[in-house]
Write a structure and sequence with these properties.
Two copies of one chain form a homodimer.
Chain A: E1 4-11, H1 15-26, E2 29-36, E3 41-51, E4 54-63, H2 69-77, E5 80-87, H3 91-100, E6 111-112, E7 118-122, E8 132-136
Parallel strand pairs in A: 1-4, 5-8
Antiparallel strand pairs in A: 1-5, 2-3, 3-4, 6-7, 7-8
């Protein structure tokens, strides 16, 4: 079902500062910056690698306010890994298959993710404490 | 510097149970099981994807005892993402380049990781709260 590790989603207090760190320390390159009001984040995607199953990124996330999900995460746990995104061929099909296994979906239907992707989150309590995202990349 | 997201390291209480979950829910396949006494873990690597820069895995980690690093992590934070491993060409060279940027290394020299890899951990306080591992895969 999983085609790739699409991205590691990392919560931070200061997006520009963290982009600078990942660029200068690890040589990653920003390929997209977006504000996602629905998710309450300002974010950047940094390219890591290409593969048969698509591209892998580091996603840096800064909350738009303390009341957002990422804002609350930062207040409770501090900076760090917020979620893991896996690439899938068809997000709706994957959601149905996973729900049939008894895993609760946070999203009832796919929503808009980074760089035009269709995404859905799974409930971390049903995935061993890992907030898990399904990512269907846009058709080329 | 980074060739791939080598793996997402996930801490869990019961390795066999979690392997079963990742296999049955997401269709991942275990390609290696090891006990790493030095790191105090029983672990499994599950294949996700192959790419130009190498292979990406989910790594499931069960502590050998509560006194290990992963045991303490579980007691403090519960199950979830423990670290992120990135593939590099030459772990010693990457360690030197990263240390030169002011990031503290947990390991002074490379040590043995999963599946014959040479690895080193970077201090999470210097990487925005993310315990970050460098992974040099063994020569084929």
């Amino acid at each position: 079902m999983f085609l790739r590790i699409d991205h590691v989603g990392i919560a931070c207090h200061n997006l520009e500062e963290k982009i600078g760190f990942y660029e200068s320390t690890f040589g990653l390159v920003v390929v997209s910056r977006e504000v996602n009001e629905a998710q309450g984040v300002r974010e950047a995607m940094l390219h890591v690698a290409d593969g048969e199953g698509g591209t892998s990124y580091v996603q840096l996330l800064e909350p738009l306010s303390p009341e957002t999900a990422v804002g609350k995460f930062l207040a409770k746990r501090g900076e760090g890994v917020h979620h893991i995104g896996y690439g899938v061929e068809d997000v709706s099909k994957a959601m149905a298959e996973i729900a049939a296994k008894g895993v609760r979906l946070i999203d009832e239907r796919p929503r808009h993710g980074s760089m035009g992707a269709s995404i859905a989150f799974l409930h971390p309590k049903d995935v061993g404490g890992v907030l898990t995202e399904l990512v269907e990349a846009p058709r080329q």
